[in-house]
Amino acid sequence: MSAVRVLVGTRKGAFVLRADGKRERWEVSGPHFGGWEMYHLKGSPADPNRLYASQSTSWFGQLIQRSDDGGASWEPVGNAFAYDGPTGTHQSHDGTPHPWAFARVWHLEPSLTDPDMVYAGVEDAALFRSTDGGRTWRELPALRRHESAPGWQPGAGGMCLHTIILDPRHAKRMFVAISSAGAFRTDDGGASWRPINRGLHSEQIPNPDAEVGHCVHRLAMHRSQPQVLFMQKHWDVMRSDDAGESWREVSGNLPSDFGFAIDVHAHEPETIYVVPIKSDSEHYPPEGKLRVYRSRSGGEEWEALTNGLPQRDCYVNVLRDAMAVDGLDPCGVYFGTTGGQVYASADAGDRWTAIVRDLPAVLSVEVQTLP
Amino acid sequence: MIRVVLPPHLRKLARVEREVQIEVVGPVTQRTVLDALEARYPVLRGTIRDHVTQQRRPFVRFFACEQDLSHDAPDAPLPEAVATGAEPFMVVGAMAGG
């Protein structure tokens, strides 16, 4: 019988949740790396027992952990993230030039085909790659050397590269997103990049239609139609039908189009999920009601999913990497909150259950579907 | 032998007890002690000093003989009591919230 494994990164450790295909009874393992910030854990699509985890603290810096047995045991691998050549500068919050400085790994994206290859999105924004299972890391420096980079500014959470999407049909095409520079695409394996932000409109920047400077919170794609991208921006839910060449807003009837997480149903490429957050200064759900919104039409028309979710006095946030779907039928949808709950729906969002609660604040949720 | 006391997170990471003993050839300084420590426990590279700059991480402190040596030059000799092993060199996680 199939099974699922949910990888949960929190402010104070990692947790691994397991259930069979019914997704009713859950085993909770953890905390792994207790006391450390676990920004992200993700399994290799090519070998589900190969997991990568980003472990850090302000005290002792960055570590990368690797598991070859599905999270039963872990091994620290390489943690030297050195920018390639002169770092140059980006803008700091006060507008002065600030040298690029490595802070942490926000996101790990294993290759679709090679368990030993994994990408890392870091703060200050850059993209690194390992081809030896995480032992050594090399920057793909063309992104950081993009002509617009000296003008990039950090968002409130830091200038992080937080989203990496590998195109399943074009091996050399990749999408990344940086707060708060925007979205970028490479078609040559990272040798060159260009901003893909046409159609984004951000009133918080001097030129609302600028090529860069947009605070993209998250991108999502369905593997069956990689030219279609969905975006949760600082404000606005957006959609592109041409691999990011242009975007249009699909916020429609959402109660708020601010938010962080966005994901796509495993089997229905036009069914997408967001968790509206009240505003950029009030990082909690509108009206104290935790609602996932689902669109079955690729945006514009949204329905609130509330069954099993708290509908009063709820003031948690759902961060950008904290939503995922499994590959079972019906599709399972999962998200974690800053209040320490991980909610799961085994029926594509119709009904929700907290499969664990009272964890430290959840930073990331990933799901593996196992045979 | 030089005695080095590690904070709990780093003990767990290096899979050692509170105190480790290492051998330092030549002058006993912060740099030579940490070089020897990292050579014996490579997993500690980057956790006490930045990988690139080799500077002490901001929330790490070095104490010995009831003194805060954090701001001493990395190549300054450590106290004689550390060099003889009478007192430990302490790597401490700063009290900084969280």
Describe the secondary-structure layout.
The complex is a heterodimer of chains A (371) and B (98).
Chain A: E1 3-10, E2 13-20, E3 27-32, E4 37-44, E5 47-57, E6 61-67, E7 75-76, E8 89-91, E9 97-99, E10 104-110, E11 118-123, E12 126-130, E13 138-139, E14 160-166, E15 174-179, E16 182-186, E17 194-195, E18 216-221, E19 229-233, E20 237-240, E21 248-249, E22 262-264, E23 272-274, E24 292-295, E25 303-305, E26 323-325, E27 333-336, E28 342-345, E29 353-356, E30 362-370
Antiparallel strand pairs in A: 1-2, 1-30, 2-3, 4-5, 5-6, 6-7, 8-9, 10-11, 11-12, 12-13, 14-15, 15-16, 16-17, 18-19, 19-20, 20-21, 22-23, 23-24, 24-25, 26-27, 27-28, 28-29
Chain B: E1 2-5, H1 8-14, E2 19-22, H2 30-40, E3 60-64, E4 67-68, H3 80-83, E5 89-93
Parallel strand pairs in B: 1-5
Antiparallel strand pairs in B: 1-2, 3-4, 3-5
Taking all Cα atoms into account, the compactness measure Rg of chain A is 19 Å
Second CATH tier, the architecture of chain B = Roll
- Give the count of structural domains of chain A: 1
Number of helices of chain A: 0
Identify the CATH class of chain B: Alpha Beta
User: Do you know the CATH architecture of chain A?
Assistant: 7 Propeller
The value of Rg of chain B in angstroms is 12 Å
Observed structural traits:
heterodimer; A: 371 residues; mainly beta; Methylamine Dehydrogenase, Chain H; four-stranded antiparallel beta sheet; 0% helix; B: 98 residues; five-stranded mixed beta sheet; 22% helix
